[in-house]
Amino acid sequence: MKTSDFYYDLPGELIAQDPLADRSASRLLVLDRKSGEFRHETFRNILRYLKRGDCLVLNDTKVIPARLLGRKKDTGAAIELLLLKRLGETDWECIVRPGKKLRVGAEAEFGDGELTAKVISVDPSGNRIVRFSFRGIFEEVLDRLGQMPLPPYITHELKDRNRYQTVYAKFEGSAAAPTAGLHFTKELLNEIGDLGISLAYVTLHVGLGTFRPVKAEDIRDHVMHEEHYMISGEAAAIVNETKKNGGRVICVGTTSVRTIESAAEKLPEQGGDKPSYGLRACSGDTGIFIYPGYEFKLTDGIITNFHLPESTLIMLVSAFAGREHVLEAYREAVREKYRFFSFGDAMFLTDGIPSDKNA
Predict the structure, then answer these.
(1) In the predicted model, is pLDDT for residue 162 greater than 50?
(2) E strands, the chain, where?
(3) Fewer CB near the last or first residue (10 Å), C or N of the chain?
(4) How far apart are CA 283 and CA 229, in angstroms?
(5) What is the model's pLDDT at position 124?
């Protein structure tokens, strides 16, 4: 398949610039991935489409204020660092803008010299490996000096940085939010639990590689940037018990999909036409790239936002629900003026939509 096969036309005014006052008041387009039928809903009505015995998989990563604005130490030239991945106590992989001003050995400083960064190497992608020097605790320094790394299509200032965090964010390390989770409130999660639906928390620290444009004409030539993930024994047990009992494993966001699909393991043969899979408790780095033709092992449903044209994320949801079904749903969302991308509305990709009288 070609990258251009995943293009759709999006008017710029539909790109959401600000989060809604009420997280769960966003709109929800429910898509039957088998038939292509869709229905318009409000996100809080996701409860109508969940069943006792289901499991929601949520990514509990926490976004760090990973954008640092400073100056080159010798010339005073303006420098921007975007922290991508921690490599040690003081070392990080970063995107540097402008890159030509920070070659190996160059230094930048932030604040009143409270934080300095020295480039120690350049990786094949052009990202810099930076070693920080600072006084005090790095996380506290970063919290004072850093800004939330909002995507470039969001031009408005974010007044409350917590609105770019899920209400269940726990483990710091992401350069971007797992935005499908932004629609959940604590109250809604409690209601979901009261319905007998399990919650399994996994962690994948989101790097900007997930959102990089696919430049290859043939999507198979695209290489994903690796991201670190962690799956606890508790989360694996919840997912495996759900599958064993015939419940659905519904991933909140593409990052949750990529996490559990990366750690799926084939179970001993138990008869039947298709192999069965379980989830391993493990941690590691994943560069899994899911596009049409991929056979999903654990994922039975996906709650997700609307993604950029020609992105790896729209390719993932197309792998799950079919490219034509997804693109037609996107065209419908454009016609109905849904809000797109990080602060926008959501989709629920599922098997079958209950009749209106039962919804």
Answers:
(1) yes
(2) 27-32, 38-42, 55-59, 61-63, 67-72, 78-86, 91-97, 107-110, 115-122, 128-134, 171-174, 198-204, 227-231, 249-252, 264-266, 277-279, 282-286, 301-305, 346-350
(3) C
(4) 5
(5) 84
One of 2.40.10.240, 3.40.366.10, 3.30.70.2740, 3.40.50.2300 is the CATH number of 67-145, namely 2.40.10.240
Mean pLDDT for all residues in the chain = 94
Query: pLDDT grade, residue 357 (50/70/90)?
Result: very low
Q: Is the pLDDT of residue 264 over 80?
A: yes
Residue tagged 């976004």 (tokens):
63
Phi, psi of 350 (to 5 degrees): -145, 170
Determine the Cα–Cα distance for residues 64 and 177; give it in Å rounded to an integer: 9
* Residue 252 to residue 183: CA distance in whole angstroms: 10
Give me the CATH code for the 3-63+160-350 domain, please.
Answer: 3.40.1780.10
Indicate whether this model's pTM tops 0.90. Answer: yes
